[in-house]
Amino acid sequence: MAVDRHAPFLKDLTRRTRSFEAFSRIASLQGDMRALPFSDNRFDLIWSEGAIYIVGFEAGLRSWRPLLKTHGCVAVTEISWLTEAPPEAPTQFWSRNYPAMATIASNCAMAQAAGYEILHHFTTPERDWWTDYYEPLEMKIRVLRLKYADSPDALAFLDEEQREIDVFRQHSSCYGCVFYLLKKEG
């Protein structure tokens, strides 16, 4: 089951997976991950990449736990501090844009408090950020700056997006996308 609020993303998923043998087993639902309409003990696995922040790491894990079958798993990515004492620039940026960002140790403690065993966690390669996110985003920012050159609000938004890229360029050793593999306890 694929859930997203944005119907075009679900249509794109259908288009891209149609040629796969497993396509017949993929269902999609346009909905809000804060109010999933599923019965308890339904899923063996819940997979969420780059989206749990919408609900909050611990809140998301707590709300998903009843949906898992006994010993079901959650595979989730979460932007996380990789150091206990990050420099001022990334701390200021993320305190404005994602104040709930926590360290790996804190996220593991939240997962355990929510009733999960930590099976594994790892930081995704920095190159993934560049190839799959920041390089395409920087190209789009350049295009949008020209398109919205007369809009101070749009330019301010684009400035903030560029700031995120610049902070990562300078401080990528301090934070990253961490993949957590968790198993529902008892």
Note down, in words, how this protein is organized.
This protein is α/β, with parallel strands linked by helices. It folds into two domains: 1-31, no CATH class; 41-184, 3-Layer(aba) Sandwich (Rossmann fold). 44% of the residues lie in helices and 25% in strands. The protein has six helices and seven strands; from the N terminus they run βαββαβαβαβααβ. The strands form two sheets. Strands 3, 4, 5, 6 and 7 form a five-stranded mixed β-sheet that branches. Strands 1-2 form a two-stranded parallel sheet. β3 (43-48), α2 and β4 form a beta-alpha-beta unit.
Write the layout of secondary structure elements.
Layout: E1 2-4, H1 7-17, E2 28-30, E3 43-48, H2 57-64, E4 68-81, H3 88-97, E5 102-103, H4 104-113, E6 116-123, H5 126-147, H6 152-171, E7 175-184
Parallel strand pairs: 1-2, 3-4, 4-5
Antiparallel strand pairs: 4-7, 6-7
Helix pairs in contact: 2-4, 5-6
